[in-house]
Amino acid sequence: MSTAIIDARGWQNTFDLRSGDRVQSHTPVVNMVKGVLKNHPYPGDMDAGSNRWVSDTALELIKEYNPRFVYLTYAAQYFKGRYNKMTADERSRMIDNAFSELQRFIDLSRFTAIVIGSGNMAPLMDTIDVTGLNGIAVCTNWSTKYAGLYEPSSADMKYLESHPLIEKIVPREEIVSLFDGTPEQAARTPEFLMLARQGHTFRAMSPAMRVPVMIPADNFRIPLHIPVDGVDDLTDVRPALERLIAQKNIALIVMEGVGLDEFSMPHRPCINGKGWFFYETGDAQHLALSSGEHRFFDYPKGYKHFDEVDNTREYPFSGYFKSIPANLFGSSFTGRSIAVGNKSMFMHMVTGADICVECFSRNLFNQGTMAVVHREDKL
Amino acid sequence: MQCSYCERRCDIPEGGTGFCRMYTSLQGVITERFPGRWSACGTSVIESMPFYHIYPGSRCLTIGTAGCNFRCRYCSNAYIAKEDPEVQADKMYRLSAADLVGTAMRFKCKSIVFNVNEPAVSIPSMLEVANEARRAGIMTGCLTNAYMTEESTELLVSMFTFFNISLKGLSDEFNRRYIGIPSCGPVLRNIAAIAAVRHVEITTPLIQDCNDAEIDAMADFIADISPSIPWHVFRLLPGDEMHDAAYPDIDRIDGELISAREKLRYVYFHNFVGSDWVNTLCPSCGAVVIERFSLGCGGDKLNRNHCDGNSCPECGRAIDLVL
């Protein structure tokens, strides 16, 4: 059983991650993690101390648990850049600060770092209004490039196919073929996937009210800092990681919202997708990293998530995930592993690490932190 | 020209605006400035509004506009409610009432709920939506601060069949300092009026050491209207001008609600992840009749409804539910 520990600021409780039911757990690992959460309240996605929280939490977990593999995401610059207008100087300082924090972690932990930038951001120039379609357009999961399309009328298709800001409309069969999907995976895939041109996003029906000022750019390549040669594709990172960790403690670190233009460490460009598809910053990109394979279908872009809201769904703390993804590096690694991130509540689903700590923020509202203990048998 | 939509009763000069900046005066008529524009339009579940005692587990279309007639220091949606509506107007959805209702039908929503800001600042647009929805057989509800005139209250009652009304605090000092109004008198008057004819739930954001001393008095007020009114006590999520405020102590607030639970049949304490106080208990035998799960901050959902229709499966007592 995986145990979720929720720290809602001064109020901790433990739950069965799968069912969401309250459980009592006072094992050494759970107690240790409770202490770490108590010592490190999350300052908030937009707070200046957000990235420092990642480092400090990870450093305490390293001290207490002595892992050989650490998976981190630093996301403060992504959130700030997404929603705040900044001058070039302000943005430059923000990115510098993010890398300084990353370097502080590397210096203090003495782990060998593999660092990936999740991709450049681009100014949002305009939106593509798909609210008036006869069919249904779904743009979710913080996605901006991609939107799903269901039951479009011929008038819808005429409008969309001639829209100057839509780059491409891909039918389901082409998506399934590109990623070798199964019939079950195909069933969750949109009938069509629409791609916006760079700097544009879809205006679909959504309860989300914040309008971004910067969105992920077209990042067919992203920066990768890695101390070995022969890693040219996102899916090559895992085999390289397996080779490296045989000799060294490794920290796999993702700098969210930073691409080739702003990555300040020595790096090489790394292919960030397949064919016409590239990953936006988010869960699928992390899954590709930690599994070494493309993972479009775990959480497909533009799928009708609201049709899956039923009262018996498992993993209530895990967003739209319905199961723990298989074949992740953290879950197959026999040594101890931890993950810490301030991107969202998905570290426990995309890393497979024994212990995962993440902020519990929804739509930037800071509700505290969550830790998930997947393995207790290594302490 | 005096605006009579809310209790501020602003004097709006020709072409000018009042407190909420959502109405203007044109040739002597108070007119909506941004009709048919919506800051949000998406699907959700009714528990996340929150409504716990009406259409459990149903899907709703949530909509909102911009602006507000309050200036709550802790506003969760300040970037919508406090920001100049004119600045937001171009970023908003432009949808007619027919568009909205058509969308609700395509997305298989049982209801349309106005839940982002204060509906009193957009009454003409919302009136159109309500009329269109009624024709299509879709219910409408809203979240409101109820600081509107008696005439507007009648209008809202004609538009919405269910309400979640925010009772923020009772004392004049609290209302002046934290909400920006001289008194909650009109709010109390309107809660009583609306609850007499419509399904009402009440929400109170609790700020430790600011309004938690009024818990019992607020419970008394609600109980005097009806002990069956569900009361959602929200733990303050510090934000906006109160960004640095302390998160209220959950165990302490829970202790302070003991007396309220004796006066009211359905007291919920949530707005934080994993709350223990989101289930509905039978007022007679104490059995859990509806189980819910809370992710906090608009993330509540139905887990299991054990009721037999409107009745407790254990003792048969009627549970106050609209199905």
Describe the structure.
The complex is a heterodimer of chains A (379) and B (323). Chain A is globular and about 60 Å long. The longest helix of chain A is centred in the first third of the chain and has 22 residues, at 88-109. The mean pLDDT of chain A is 94. In chain A, strand 18, helix 11 (347-350) and strand 19 (355-362) form a beta-alpha-beta unit. Helices cover 27% and strands 25% of the residues of chain A. Chain A contains 11 helices and 20 strands. In chain B, helix 3 (97-106) packs across helix 4, helix 4 (123-136) runs parallel beside helix 5 and helix 5 packs parallel to helix 7. Chain B has helices at 78-81, 85-89, 97-106, 123-136, 150-159, 172-179, 185-195, 215-225, 250-256, 258-263; strands at 23-26, 29-32, 37-38, 40-45, 59-64, 93-94, 111-114, 139-144, 162-166, 199-206, 231-235, 267-270, 280-281, 288-294, 300-305. Chain B has 10 helices and 15 strands. Chain B starts with 22 loop residues before the first strand and ends in an 18-residue tail after the last strand. In chain B, the strands form 4 sheets. Chain B has an 8-stranded mixed sheet. Chain B has a 3-stranded antiparallel sheet with strand order 13-14-15, with no helix packed on it. The model of chain B has no long low-confidence stretch (mean pLDDT 95). Chains A and B meet through strand 20 of A and strand 4, strand 5, helix 3 and strand 15 of B.
